[in-house]
Amino acid sequence: MTTLPEPGNSSASEGDLQRMSLLEHLEEFRRRIFKSIIAVAVVFVFCWFFVEKITDFLAQPIYKALPEGSRLTFLGITDPFIIYVKVAALVALFLSSPIVLYQVWGFIAPGLYRKERRQAIPFIFFGSLFFIGGGAFAFYVAFPFAVDFLVGMGAAFQPMITVERYFRFLLYVILGLGLMFELPIIIFLLAQMGVVTPRFLIRNFKWAVLLIFIAAAFVTPTPDVVNLLMFALPTIVLYLLGVAAAALVLRSKKKKEPPEE
Question: Cα–Cα distance between 46 and 32 in angstroms, integer?
Answer without folding.
Answer: 22
